[in-house]
Design brief:
The complex is a heterodimer of chains A (about 300) and B (about 425).
Chain A: H1 2-24, E1 46-50, E2 56-60, H2 75-78, E3 87-92, H3 101-110, E4 120-124, E5 133-137, H4 146-150, E6 156-158, E7 164-166, H5 176-180, E8 187-188, H6 197-200, E9 217-218, H7 224-228, H8 234-238, E10 244-248, E11 253-255, E12 260-262, H9 263-269, E13 285-288
Chain B: H1 3-13, H2 20-46, H3 61-73, H4 75-85, H5 92-116, H6 125-128, H7 135-155, H8 159-167, H9 174-184, H10 191-224, H11 236-262, H12 271-302, H13 305-315, H14 320-338, H15 346-372, H16 393-416, H17 422-434
Helix pairs in contact in B: 1-17, 2-16, 3-5, 3-11, 3-15, 4-5, 4-10, 4-11, 5-7, 5-11, 5-16, 7-10, 8-9, 10-11, 11-12, 11-15, 12-14, 13-14, 14-15
Classes of the chains: A alpha+beta (about 300), B mainly alpha (about 425).
Amino acid sequence: METKDNSRREFIAAGLLAGLALAGCSAKKNPFEPDTLEEVKPSGEMVKLLSVDGKVIEVDKAFLKPVPELPAIPNDIARKGIAGKKFVMVIDLSRCKSLKKCQAACNHMHHIHPGQNWIKVYPMQDAEHTAPYWEPTTCMHCDEPPCVKVCPVDATFKRQDGIVLIDSDRCIGCRFCMAACPYSSRVFNWEDPGVPEDIAKQPYSCETSVPQKKGTVGKCDFCPDMARKGELPHCVSACPNGVFAFGDMNEDTVTNGSETFRFSDLIRDKAGYRLMEDLGTKPSVYYLPPVNRNFPFENNEGKEEGKHS
Amino acid sequence: MKDSAIQKITEDLLPQKFGKQGKIWVAFLSVLCIIGFIAYCRQLSKGLVVTGMRDYVSWGIYISNFVFFVAISLVGSLITAVLRLTNAEWSTPLTRIAEIIAVSAITFASLIIIVDMGRPDRFYNLFIHGRLQSPIIWDVIVITTYFFISLLLLYFPLLPDLQILLRFKERTNKRLYWLYGFLGSFWKDTPQQIKISRRAVNILSITIIPVAFSIHTVTSWLFATTYRPGWDSTNFGAYFISGAFLVGAGAVIVAMYVFRSHYNLERYITYSHFDKMGKILVMLALLYLYFNVNEFLVPAFKMKKSEEDHLMGLFTGEFAPVFWFAICTAMIIPILILVNRKGRRPLPAFIAGLLVVVGSWFKRYLIVTPTLLHPFLPMHDVPESYKHYFPTWEEWAIAIGSLAGAMLIITIFARIFPIIPIHETITETEQHEKE
């Protein structure tokens, strides 16, 4: 009787975990397979759980196993995007003094190859007598993305929420997207990106863009994994000056963490614009001009002249 | 026609064993191929980091070499199709030379593009996930088509010659005899077979022209479909096609000279052939020059800001020596040589052809790299080495190895098969005698 009961509980627990697995695993390797064929002895300590059909069940704690690290969202769902959303970013050039905290946070969270950056902060000067300013760039997540147009294998794709992502498990490394992108926002993993071993063996997730893989292209992903958690992209929360504001165009709201703006008002009042509008790429990143600045422009990086088209 | 005359033509044109020179040449090319292969193995294990390419210059000499190969392969359609359809009978001895150049060049174009891939192990993704909207897929489709049409245009006219080769059993070794039999023993020279073969060659000659235009136009679109200064041009398709015919014709003249002097084919590849090919080359060089004027003078007249750095880099900046070298060697000097009748003799024509081929290779380099060094936003937030490009020894070894490989295919083909069509030469000589 006792053993029979146990096996029934085991079955339920397995069903429960399998349900989780279906929701959360790209099924590269079944992480729920027992490592050994050892019999698990019940510890006597019972845990209440909600079964897949909505009933509260009790399971012995010994039968529970911690779920190994899995991508939050399977890649076929990540390809579709979050329904009802249209993500947008506003970069306020009047607040930027090139602290590059955004860049450091982005590099750290995405385990980017040392020396390469998904976020770049350009010292810009449009013409000889115009004012210099700092211009941080992310991927523009264009509505007419030139990179997506040219990709031969659909490895880079545009989602319904406006985000352009890369499937590093599919990318063949032809670099046509890099040639096509006018914003130079794409980088290539020319060698092994040097991702820490425990992260490198995780299955690749399109939404976290981790782990980066040798011979494939990487770029800013607007951190949709953070958006799913209701949090801001790493660059936005890392910036102490509130340069970046992120939000949903459908809600007409963007926030830099401490301040929240009505997107349409912000763009109207501060004369927001997008980069290289003449190319017709329709970026999702808007810029506020560097007027009434918080900081004077000081370039200590060595003299570098920017040009702008 | 007398049997002795036929005998003489056949004797002259049968494939010959490699002499000492031939053996050294084959060994030399093989060594280059092996070095290239070793370099590629290094690239496979370490990644594309062994190249000089980085995030800004993400395409380098592999891609320019690819464009060069695709360009040179177009000559197959020029000589076999265009000249055949216009009844230019004089070109008969050149058809097989042109066609084997086309086949070997297109083979190595495909190989070099795989070399350029970051993940060659995922090549199959092109077939299981291929997006028909991408110009790369268009290129895959048309290049494959062109390869097979070229192969057939090489094979069908070879059939009667295989029959002749099979008759000279004592002149060949066992394995080659087996190969000839395998490829051509079904050919019995019946009127029916001749009719089918003629029709097939006619159909292929017509179809290869749009396909040939497609391969190089689509290759130009790999660049022209982007926004970048120097590539964003409506002129690109025609510019590439005219350049391709030029370099292909140059390569044929070079090959004509080498085969003629090495295999003593003076009776078959005559002064008149060099004269006519020389005139064609002048015309093609003028045509390419015309498209170059369009390509550079029009944007230079306006000097849009995005174009300015790129153009000045070519005209007077860091790429100026290569730019003017390419313009002079690929177009101006060959025109000056070949426009004179004396310049169309075999040796000067050979030199002009060689200049065209070398200049054209550098021209392809200039099409690819300088543009990438002038992005819309300035080069920034990258290691200093990312802001320049110079090919590493691995890249040179692979690029040179691929060129050597293409020449090796041509050399070995000429060892196994008659490089000048025997059967067609005999029938045409007969016709001339009747007239």
